[in-house]
Design brief:
Strand content: 25-35%
Shape: globular
Largest sheet: 8 strands, parallel, barrel
Helix content: 25-40%
CATH superfamily of the largest domain: Aldolase class I
Number of strands: 36
Radius of gyration: 31 Å
Low-confidence stretches: none
CATH class of the largest domain: Alpha Beta
Strand order of the largest sheet: 1-2-3-4-5-6-7-11
Number of domains: 4
Length: 757
């Protein structure tokens, strides 16, 4: 795809102030939510009316605004409120929406055909084939799964003409691209409905007794890799942070814009300046320092910081000595008045917080008095958690930009006696003309061109300023100065309207139309009970149960659990019994290559068995079926595919999935993750460890079991206890999860779950 612009800097807008700050500080576009249907429901999201004003401001400056509609919606929400919410934004030139729910995607494309749709990272797109299948639904840009490497990003870019938007800075989700149900499991607050309680940031206790933040990734920073990202073909640098302060949005936007421009100009970053800029970003927010994310980190252990959660700050000194309620520490970084410092013990826990009274430069020694009862010892580290000087500097810069941010216009003023005075304004390709009162001969002192110029140039808080101003006044003419000011205000108002109309004409060619409600197709009730067999030892017991006459049971074998010859044995064991397979949930390029190699060796053996269908657990599976030459087999939507509305079901049907399963019994898989507790605890197969399921427990005793899938290097995280679930939809087919069930327990649990009489 031919590049038509420099890389876009896409900043977060969690508040009205943050949106303006980001645009004034280098962002080319801002993504923000409304007060409905946003994955950051607790952000200070702008109202629709505020967003309309923001759109006017942005478009006058060639900036773009994207609105997040990236939650799962029910039929009443989708068919009721969504259209009314987006209509005024669409009419006002909204540039794009960011979507995860494919039913929402279909609705928006039908209702607002002239509106670009960006496929959210929550759609877990990992290949060009997976991206391209969404083009018919109005998708013009994809945000790939955050777990992809820079090589995978470049590979995808070479095989799609869709724009590529990549997260380059900010917080990471432990769960694969944010498709997490752990928050819902613990506290009933769904992350996919905008109310994530961030359970990944909790401390977890292992069965060994060790405690740590095993599910808490560091924040990512790729400022030093901007050139590599641009060379890989990334179109948009996305900065995470809609829950953070406006200073964060402003600073990150400015720095990434500066480094992108430098790379485009062929200028390599100075190491010392880069170090300084990264440290400033750390001052704004970081967790355990920065990592480079899955994009550049080859060792995933570098992504997790298990010692502490929350803002880590910047290390500024070490305690030298303690005496009579005073601690003396030596500085390694400059500190300023009102900086907030933390003294931390050897475990990284805060023991005392201190506000700086006087700024100092390193290597000065600073004395801080502390409260009785605080345990401060020599050797403890001191961290800055608030850089007051930096925040003040950014705040002042934002205010300065607000004052100075004016659209340049060229003005031509003419005043001839006996004619109406005129003011012509030119802004880019747009122009307008306004007329005022008839010019009369002066009875006293005439008006000079300089008098007129001074009055016209008092632009005040207007969005415009004169780049050039030509003033022609006939000698001896009289003009009330108030009328000149009124003419200026009228002219600026008119040029503003002309600019807006011009922008809208460029953006909106097709009017919006409320879609008709979908016709609900008649469902064919099936009596099949799908059983997910996750351990090869379970096969024989399930087979025995079916042979006893329980023909309703259809075993499903997730092939990521089985390696090599196990596939051939599976086909042999199931020669007389219909079974289904599901492909690996995560099919990034390494997993895809590994799987296809295995399929080449063992896929034919499977088909010699009684293979009767494919359970689709990821929409990335769909383009692969042709490669596997099993595209003819029936497809059923698996329980990991969200289906909250009828439109989503319709889209599934277009992909050949007329039936949908829902978890009815067993342990819910609350997340799939590229992170790995086994790696954090030294039990990784690739480093000589002995991986096994690990039980992890929250401080409130909520338990989960992390199960490694070493064949493809990812994990399932299951609820500790199995239970009976309500079906997502009454037409869904029931699905039982046998993960972590011992073979001899299968009959018992299937009866408990009402799968067997």
């Amino acid at each position: 795809m031919e590049r038509t612009m420099s890389v876009e800097i896409l900043a977060p807008g969690g508040s009205v102030g943050g949106i303006y700050a980001a645009m004034l500080h280098g962002a080319d576009a801002v993504y923000t939510g409304t007060r409905r249907f946003s994955a950051r429901a607790f952000a200070d999201n702008p109202s629709v009316e505020e967003l309309c004003g923001i759109l006017d401001f942005a478009h006058a400056r060639d900036k773009k605004i994207y609105v997040t509609v990236n939650t799962l919606l029910t039929d009443p929400e989708l068919e009721g409120d969504l259209y009314d919410l987006l209509l005024p934004l669409y009419d006002n030139g909204l540039d794009a929406v960011i979507v995860q729910d494919i039913g929402v995607m279909q609705f928006i494309h039908e209702a607002f055909p002239d509106l670009d749709i960006h496929a959210s990272t929550q759609m877990t797109i990992v290949t060009a084939e997976g991206a391209n299948q969404w083009k018919p639904y109005g998708v013009t840009r994809v945000v790939p799964a955050r777990e992809l490497s820079i090589g995978e990003i470049a590979q995808m870019r070479r095989h799609t003409d869709l724009e590529m938007e990549v997260f380059v800075h900010g917080a990471l989700c432990y769960c694969y691209s944010g498709q997490c149900m752990m928050s819902q499991s613990i506290g009933g607050r769904s992350g996919n409905r905008g109310m994530c309680a961030q359970p990944c940031r909790l401390p977890y206790r292992l069965s060994s007794g060790k405690t740590g933040y095993y599910l808490s990734p560091k924040d990512m920073c790729t400022l030093g890799q901007v050139g590599e990202l641009m060379d890989a073909g990334v179109d948009s640098f996305k900065i995470e942070g809609r829950m953070k302060k406006l200073e964060y949005a402003a600073m990150t936007a400015r720095l990434y814009r500066m480094y992108a421009d430098a790379h485009e100009a062929g200028v390599k970053p100075d190491d010392k300046e880069l170090e300084k800029d990264v440290k400033n970003l750390m001052d704004l927010y970081n967790r355990g320092g920065f990592c480079k994310g899955y994009l550049f980190e080859k060792d995933k252990k570098n992504i997790i910081y298990k010692e502490k959660n929350g803002h880590y700050g910047v290390e500024v000194g070490t305690v030298l000595r303690v005496k009579k309620g005073e601690a003396v520490f030596r500085l390694t970084e400059e500190i300023a008045y009102q900086d907030v410092l933390e003294f931390r013990d050897e475990n990284g826990e805060k023991v005392y917080e201190y506000t700086v009274k006087n700024g100092c430069l390193p290597p000065a020694e600073v004395t801080a008095r502390y409260q009785k009862g605080c345990v401060i010892k020599p050797g403890q580290k001191v961290f800055r958690t608030k850089n007051a000087a930096l925040l003040q500097e950014i705040g002042q810069a934002v205010e300065r930009e607000k004052r100075e941010d004016k659209l340049p216009v060229r003005g031509v003023f003419q005043a001839e006696i006996g004619k109406e005075m005129t003011l012509q304004l030119f802004c880019g390709a747009v122009s307008c003309k306004v007329t005022g009162i008839c010019v009369e001969p002066a009875k006293g002192k005439a008006v000079s061109p300089e008098d007129v110029r001074k009055r016209l140039q008092k632009t005040g808080e207007s969005d415009f300023t004169f780049s050039t101003l030509e003033v022609s006044v006939e000698e001896g003419a009289f003009l009330p100065l108030g009328q000149i000011a009124a003419l200026r205000r009228e002219g600026f108002a008119k040029i503003g309207r002309e600019l807006k109309e011009g922008q809208l004409k460029k953006r909106r060619q097709v009017p919006a139309k409320r879609p008709q409600k979908p016709v609900v197709s008649e469902k064919i009730k099936k009596e099949h009970l799908f059983v997910n067999v996750t351990d090869f030892r379970q096969i024989y017991e399930v087979k025995s149960i079916i042979k006893e006459g329980n023909t309703k049971l259809v075993p499903v074998f997730p092939l990521e659990w089985f390696a090599g010859k196990c596939w051939r044995e599976l086909a042999s064991e199931m020669e007389e019994i219909p079974f289904m397979i599901s492909l690996p949930v995560i099919l990034d390029l390494p997993a895809r290559k590994h799987f296809l190699q295995n399929w080449q060796h063992y896929g034919q053996e499977l088909q010699k068995g009684n293979l009767s269908g494919i359970l689709i657990q990821s929409l990335e599976h769909l383009p692969m079926l042709q490669q596997l030459e099993i595209d003819h087999l029936p497809r059923i939507a698996g329980p990991r595919l969200y289906q909250w509305n009828e439109r989503t079901r319709q889209v599934y049907e277009t992909f050949g999935m007329k039936e949908h399963t829902s978890l009815a019994a067993g342990r819910m898989a609350v997340m799939v993750t590229k992170g790995c507790v086994n790696q954090q605890t030294g039990n990784c197969l690739r480093t000589g460890g002995k991986p096994a399921p690990l039980e992890i427990t929250t401080p409130k005793k909520d338990g989960f079991v992390s199960v490694p899938i070493c064949e493809y290097c990812y994990n399932f995280c299951y609820e500790k206890e199995g239970k009976v679930q309500e079906l997502q939809c009454e037409d869904d087919l029931p699905f039982a999860e046998l993960a972590l069930v011992e073979p001899h327990e299968i009959r018992k649990v299937l009866k408990q779950w009402n799968f067997l009489s």
